[in-house]
Specification:
- There is one protein chain.
- The protein is α+β, with helices and mostly antiparallel strands.
- The chain has a domain of about 60 residues.
- It has a 4-stranded antiparallel beta sheet with strand order 2-1-3-4, with no helix packed on it.
- Strand 3 and strand 4 form a beta hairpin.
- The radius of gyration is 22 Å and the shape is extended.
Length: about 120
């Protein structure tokens, strides 16, 4: 990589697990775990529900900092023999632009979603 981009400095990334105290409300502070280094292809352990990721260059300057939340499976679920079950919940996330696009491109679906 350095041969191709000689000005590129090295970097490393670490994460800190974000833990919520048991029975804590959403307004209460969270605790951060120890910094753990990781590389490309790292598999997040199943017990981690959220993490704060920081990538730094060789001079220890922060290049990027993000927070991620996960929905991790608690146990392995065997494959169902029949997948004819219908979902009991449908969740749609829309921002203003996609809401306008939905209204213009799929008006009948938009009307059905608006119904109580």
């Amino acid at each position: 990589m350095r041969k191709k981009f000689p000005n590129l400095m090295g970097y490393n990334c670490t994460y800190r697990e974000i833990r919520r105290l048991k029975n804590a409300s959403a307004e209460e502070p969270m605790s951060l775990g120890e910094e753990t280094a990781f590389e490309d292809g790292y598999v997040v352990p199943l017990h981690i529900e959220a993490m704060k990721v920081i990538c730094r260059n060789e001079l220890s300057e922060d290049l990027q900092m993000d927070t991620f939340a996960f929905v991790q499976p608690r146990r392995s679920i065997p494959l169902q023999k029949s997948w004819h079950r219908r979902p009991s919940i449908i969740m749609l996330g829309m921002d203003n632009l996609s809401r306008m696009t939905l209204r213009n491109n799929m008006p009948s679906l938009f009307e059905n979603i608006k119904k109580p």
